[in-house]
């Protein structure tokens, strides 16, 4: 047919096929973290796109229905034209049919998916309002399709997929490395840190107690105060005993010595608080929970034989997990780490 409306219809269906195939590929590599940042910054369309990502079932049904309808309609119109041109020459018809199939595959599937995978955030964000119009137009047909799928699932005794999307962390890490354009270097670093937590224990972070500033139970309070003032510390581990009997018996806090009705006196043993002891095989996330639960800034790491193997601070764990820097004073100077660790 040479009628303009006929070719306009073919073009519209091909554009719809291009659009749906692109959105199908783009949504698979979208970065939710970046979309949430755009929502917080008030970028137009970001909230709508995030809503589709958080409830993807209806979104994907719309893509399936729209893509199927567009491909079927475009193919039908082109095949009718081909039949009229070739007439009773079947070999010409099948050659033309193969060319149409190849062209529909390239323009309606391969090209849009390549473009949307290359620029997923930019294209999906700019076209999300157009998708909303298509979603509204196809909503009756999508609703019927969803109901039919649920009925079929009920009749066959099936159930929705509830298993993991990835078999293990290595599969997720491999997928993350493949999606180069979807994640920034900062996002990739944070995700790698979280994935590494499964095998990270305190034994990897524990510092030798020899590098820590400590006192003994017999140390006078005056010396404890002088040591805290000199090295800018607020907590000190306290030893008791000698030789093989030497053990950490607690912690002395600077606040306990300063904020009193009367001046502090005596020795460190008279102002002890219990120390937190953690096994060296404890995972970092569990160690962080225990530190936060007790309000402690550091813990004594105990080895396999029950002896003190080292010391770990709250900021050591946060830095290992998230790359968190130590907080700074208002003037910009870095605060010393909590516990009896020498400030660097």
> Structural class, from secondary structure content?
mainly alpha
The tally of domains stands at 3
What profile does the largest beta sheet have?
3 strands, mixed
Strand order of the largest sheet: 1-2-3
Number of helices: 13
Distance, first to last CA? 81 Å
Number of strands: 6
Subunit organisation of the chains: single chain
The rough form would be described as: rod-shaped
Helix/strand order = HHHHHHHHHEHEEHEHEEH
Output mean pLDDT.
80
Radius of gyration: 33 Å
Low-confidence stretches: 162-166, 326-338
- Determine the strand fraction and express it as a percent band: 5-15%
Helical proportion, percent range: 55-70%
Please, could you describe this protein's structure?
Helix 1 (4-28) packs antiparallel against helix 4, helix 1 (4-28) packs across helix 5 and helix 4 crosses helix 6. This protein has 344 residues and is mainly α. It is rod-shaped. It is 58% helix and 8% strand. It has a three-stranded mixed sheet with strand order 1-2-3. A three-stranded mixed sheet has the order 4-5-6.
Topology:
Blueprint: H1 4-28, H2 32-40, H3 46-54, H4 56-86, H5 90-118, H6 120-155, H7 169-178, H8 185-196, H9 202-205, E1 215-216, H10 221-231, E2 235-240, E3 247-253, H11 254-258, E4 277-279, H12 284-294, E5 298-302, E6 308-313, H13 314-322
Parallel strand pairs: 1-2, 4-5
Antiparallel strand pairs: 2-3, 5-6
Helix pairs in contact: 1-4, 1-5, 1-6, 2-3, 4-5, 4-6, 5-6, 12-13
């Amino acid at each position: 047919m040479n009628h303009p409306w006929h070719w306009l219809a073919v073009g519209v269906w091909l554009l719809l096929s291009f659009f749906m195939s692109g959105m199908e590929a783009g949504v698979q590599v979208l970065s939710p973290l970046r979309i949430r940042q755009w929502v917080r910054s008030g970028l137009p369309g970001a909230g709508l796109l995030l809503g589709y990502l958080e409830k993807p079932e209806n979104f994907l049904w719309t893509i399936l229905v729209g893509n199927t309808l567009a491909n079927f309609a475009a193919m039908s119109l082109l095949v009718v034209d081909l039949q009229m041109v070739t007439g009773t020459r079947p070999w010409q018809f099948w050659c033309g049919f193969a060319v149409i199939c190849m062209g529909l595959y390239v323009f309606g599937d391969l090209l849009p998916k390549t473009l949307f995978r290359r620029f997923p955030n930019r294209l999906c964000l700019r076209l999300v309002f157009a998708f909303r119009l298509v979603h509204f137009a196809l909503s009756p047909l999508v609703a019927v399709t969803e109901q039919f799928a649920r009925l079929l699932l009920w009749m066959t005794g099936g159930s929705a997929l509830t298993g993991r999307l990835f078999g293990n962390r290595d599969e997720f890490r491999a997928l993350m490395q493949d999606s180069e354009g979807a994640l920034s270097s900062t996002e990739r670093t944070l995700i790698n840190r979280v994935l590494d937590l499964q095998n990270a224990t305190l034994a990897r972070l524990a510092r030798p107690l020899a590098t820590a500033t400590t006192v003994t139970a017999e140390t006078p309070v005056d010396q404890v105060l002088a040591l805290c003032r000199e090295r800018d510390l607020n907590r000190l581990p306290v030893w008791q005993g000698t030789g093989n009997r030497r053990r950490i018996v607690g912690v002395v806090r600077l606040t306990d010595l300063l904020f009193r009705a009367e001046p502090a006196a005596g020795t460190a043993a008279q102002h002890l608080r219990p120390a937190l002891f953690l096994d060296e095989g404890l995972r970092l996330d569990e160690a962080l929970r225990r530190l936060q639960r007790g309000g402690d800034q550091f813990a004594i790491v105990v080895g396999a034989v029950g002896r003190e193997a080292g010391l770990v601070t709250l900021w050591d764990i946060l830095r290992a997990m998230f790359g968190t820097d130590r907080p700074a004073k208002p003037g910009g100077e870095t605060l010393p780490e909590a516990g009896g660790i020498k400030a660097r």
